[in-house]
Design goal:
Blueprint: E1 2-6, E2 13-15, E3 27-31, E4 37-43, E5 57-61, E6 67-73, E7 78-85, E8 88-99, H1 102-105, E9 115-116, H2 120-131, E10 137-141, E11 149-150, H3 158-169, E12 171-176, E13 179-184, E14 189-193, E15 204-209, E16 215-233, E17 240-242, E18 253-258, E19 270-274, E20 279-282, E21 285-290, E22 298-307, E23 311-321, E24 326-333, E25 344-351, E26 354-361, E27 364-371, E28 377-386, E29 395-396, E30 407-408, E31 416-425, E32 438-445, E33 451-466, E34 469-473, E35 478-482, E36 489-491, E37 502-505, E38 509-512, E39 523-539, E40 557-564, H4 570-584, E41 588-596, E42 612-617, E43 622-637, E44 642-650, E45 660-662, E46 674-676, E47 692-696, E48 700-704, E49 714-718, E50 732-736, E51 740-744, E52 749-757, E53 770-775
Parallel strand pairs: 10-13, 14-42, 16-40, 16-53, 39-46
Antiparallel strand pairs: 1-2, 1-5, 3-4, 3-43, 4-8, 5-6, 6-8, 7-8, 9-11, 12-13, 15-41, 16-39, 17-38, 18-34, 19-22, 20-21, 21-33, 22-33, 23-28, 23-33, 23-34, 24-25, 24-33, 25-26, 26-27, 28-31, 29-30, 31-32, 35-36, 35-39, 37-38, 40-45, 41-44, 42-43, 43-44, 47-48, 48-51, 49-50, 49-52, 52-53
Length: 782
């Protein structure tokens, strides 16, 4: 073994091997998805001995050039007095070093937007580059699993993020020799067989664990549940309208505000394609002065995908045009950035010395045309609303479903309402600052993609300056209203300072701001999701007979409150329960094995946490594969490279490396429906998300569910959201086999709950209800 330390004094590495204290030889500790640690002690054996400094670079390697540890001292040495000698006091210097990622952990992660639809490897590479561009070789990072969404909290260190990302992907990371490695757990497999000539039976400790599971209740986050539509009528004075349910509200936040305050584009937020060199940043503005003349040739793209789920507001800036232009501003693109591929945005076209502005939807211009005026400013805003808050399921892993083959991850289909508007400002007319924006498009895009590239600029030939842009995760409630004799328009929900017309507050109520009070007879429609706890119970009945005992039915049950991956919906809870059942059908094993480094399992040169060991110990009836969780290396003979290894391992049934749980969360679970493992994914029908009320009288309500009922089944309507099934008529309002039907109205305020059912025995229903609520004063009936 050779110990080298660079004290950062310009001399380079010094050889400290001769100074290693023989009574306290180096010890390396490696842990799964955590930094490694080297503990060692030095004594001064020569007059020119230099005490290592905090932050010094440390390498412990074998004589064949293989590194056992690389890293940095994380604290000054601890001096231990040994006595006196001729030259003065003698000390032992006790030191601790951490592996190379300590360089990344010492830096603050940037405030970056969440990763959306990126692979785990991509996210890890990006975080590494964000903190120390070019500092580490990331060629050993594999992509593994696609992450639905990952927020890189700047309060956490790089290694904490790496650990979380590895857990989400069922991967393992390590950093050594300035190189980052990221691979699936169990990618390297070593056989530990008691028939091997070098096997030492006395050094193998095994602990079987009875953690069998065949009935799992998984509890997740608060989730969006019922699809709610509330209907009200304006009176001309009423500002407050009482909602029928508490709306689900996701994590509302401003994802970024870009004011172009630097000397260039922030690489944490933007990517730039600018072969013509026409894009610059100065004086707090983004300047574009031309282009390649090619569609997609000059672009300023947001670095992450934008998930089309819930509610978002994108403001594409205060734009001043300086010449006729050909471009798309604020475009959303499901695929490559091009005019024809633009899902929604603002098309800028040349018009003499000026330009025209028009909405572009699905690659086609539509709606009103605005002609630009010299010196006028234009504020472009895109708002979109989806009743599906999340557009991709979480992924859950087990030993049988490793990285790339996890449970879940499916895309969630949804329609998205898109509103495109332009606010024109005349600097010579202060009243224009508060004038109403012009809506260029307000429509529903059916079967919208789960996410899009957001290109602030896609310029063929653009001449403008942009003062700011921002992306806001808004309140997940859609409000639309229709004055008498007019069509519906979308009302912005949020803060008055952001130009909103109404807001949703606890109560729950919809509150309009005084300047936007609904007119007498104005119809108001509010769409949102109800709220409840995500949970699921899944059993494996085929496994239960194998566990039968006298007086016991064979059920082995557990309730798990999931922490990571977060189970955001009941469907996520089902997939999490299935993953836990995968690992719960057999006895769990934990163990340790100690051996010389020359006799590692499978003739391995070295072994790391995340590797797999295949244990064959017939004398102990043990045949299983487990994951290495911890490796301790105690150096015993420096000159001959002899080290003693202690390897701790456990299989997924004993300790799941791809899921963590919360403790002390008390949640009532009396109404969770038990499903078998074969029923998951085949039990529920699609919800009637298009269901709407299209006629109201003093005694009746007409409903159109938006699609034909299931063949042989129908639409079940109840007065309350309970009792679903053919055997309960207590709160039944009716069962219908037609798309449109009429229900009785018994009071001013009425609630109806709808679910489809099919001809199965017993019939299948949708997972969630559609809730239709009316609060129509009789004197304002349309």
């Amino acid at each position: 073994m050779k110990l080298q330390i660079d004290n950062l004094d310009g001399i380079g590495f010094r050889d400290y091997t001769a100074s290693i204290d023989a009574s306290r030889l180096p010890r390396v500790v490696r842990r799964l998805n955590q930094p490694s640690e080297l503990v060692f002690s030095l004594v001064a054996v020569t007059p020119d001995f230099v005490v290592p400094v905090n932050g010094a670079r440390v390498i412990l390697g074998r004589t064949n050039g293989q590194d056992v540890f690389t890293g940095y001292l994380t604290a000054p040495p601890v001096y231990e007095f040994l006595g006196w000698r001729e030259q003065g006091p003698a000390y032992r210097y006790n030191l601790v070093a951490q592996s190379d990622e300590v360089l990344l952990d010492q830096k603050r992660p940037p405030d970056r937007p969440p990763f959306v639809g990126r692979s785990a490897g991509e996210a890890l590479r990006q975080l590494t580059e964000d903190l120390l561009a070019g500092g580490f070789d990331t060629s050993g990072v594999q992509d593994l699993e696609t992450l639905a969404l990952y927020r890189a909290d700047p309060q956490k260190t790089w290694s904490e993020h790496a650990s979380a990302i590895a857990l989400l992907a069922r991967g393992s990371y390590r950093v050594s020799g300035g190189k980052l490695f990221f691979a699936p757990i169990g990618a390297a497999v070593y056989v530990l067989d008691e028939s091997d000539a070098n096997f030492s039976p006395g050094n193998l400790k095994l602990q079987p664990l009875d953690r069998l599971l065949n009935d799992v209740t998984a509890i997740g986050n608060v989730e969006p549940q019922a699809y709610v539509r509330d209907y009200f009528v304006g009176t001309g004075t009423s500002l407050k309208f009482y909602l029928s349910q508490t709306p689900f509200t996701g994590h509302s936040q401003t994802l970024f505000i870009e004011e172009f305050s630097g000397a260039g584009l922030d690489p944490v937020r933007w990517t730039l394609a600018d072969a013509a060199g026409v894009v610059t940043v100065s004086q707090g503005k983004l300047h574009v002065a031309g282009g390649t003349g090619i569609d997609g040739g000059t672009r300023v793209d947001f670095i992450e995908q934008v998930e089309l789920g819930g509610a978002f507001v994108l403001q594409h800036g205060d734009v001043l045009f300086t010449a006729a232009s050909d471009a798309v501003i604020g475009g959303l693109y499901p695929g490559p950035v091009s005019v024809a591929g633009c899902l929604a945005g603002f098309r800028i076209s040349p018009n003499g010395p000026q330009s025209t502005i028009q909405a572009i939807v699905a690659g086609v211009t539509t709606g009103p045309v605005i002609s630009t005026v010299a010196a006028h400013h234009y504020v472009f805003t895109t708002r979109f609303y989806s009743l599906e808050i999340y557009r991709r399921q979480q992924v859950f892993h087990s030993a049988a479903r490793p990285a790339g083959n996890g449970r879940g991850g499916a895309e969630i289909p949804a329609d998205v309402r898109v509103v495109l508007e332009v606010h024109e400002i005349d600097p010579a007319n202060p009243a224009s600052l508060v004038a109403t924006a012009t809506v260029l498009y307000d429509g529903l895009i059916g079967g919208a993609p789960t996410s899009c590239t957001y290109a602030l600029v896609n310029a063929g030939n653009l001449h403008c300056e942009i003062a700011f842009t921002r992306l806001v995760r808004a309140i997940d409630t859609e409000v639309r209203s229709a004055p008498q004799g007019a069509g519906y328009r979308t009302r912005l929900v949020g803060a008055l300072s952001d130009g909103a017309q109404c807001t949703v507050v606890s109560g729950p109520t919809l509150d309009f701001f005084p300047q936007y009070v609904p007119a007498p007879g104005e119809l108001i429609e509010v769409r949102y999701r109800g709220t409840g706890r995500a949970m699921a119970r899944v059993s494996n009945p085929a496994n239960q007979p194998q566990r039968l005992r006298q007086g016991d039915d064979g059920a082995r049950a557990a309730v798990k409150h999931l922490k990571l991956p977060a189970a955001r919906t009941a469907a996520d809870c089902e997939n999490a329960a299935l993953a836990l059942l995968d690992d719960g059908v057999a006895t769990g094993w934990m163990g340790e094995y100690e051996t010389w480094g020359d006799f590692l399992p499978g003739s391995a040169q070295d072994i790391f946490p995340g590797d797999a060991v295949e244990v064959h110990a017939q004398s102990r009836t043990a045949n299983f594969q487990a994951i290495v969780r911890r490796v301790e290396i105690a150096v015993k003979d420096l000159s001959q490279d002899h080290s003693w290894y202690k390897i701790a391992f456990a299989d997924d049934a004993a300790d799941n490396p791809a899921c963590t749980f919360e403790a002390g969360q008390v949640v009532s679970t009396p109404n969770v429906t038990e499903l078998t493992d074969t029923q998951v994914g085949t039990t529920f029908l699609p919800e009637l998300t298009a269901a709407a009320i299209n006629g109201v009288t003093s005694t009746t309500v007409t409903v159109d569910v938006g699609a034909m009922p299931p063949t042989g089944g129908g639409i079940e309507v109840r007065w309350t959201d309970a009792g679903w099934g053919p055997d309960n008529d207590r709160n039944l309002a009716g069962r219908f086999s037609t798309r449109s039907f009429t229900l009785p109205r018994l009071s001013r305020v009425e609630d109806y709950f709808l679910r489809p059912y099919d001809a199965s025995q017993p019939p299948k229903y949708s997972r969630y209800s559609v809730a239709l609520h009316i609060d129509f004063p009789y004197e304002y009936l349309p």
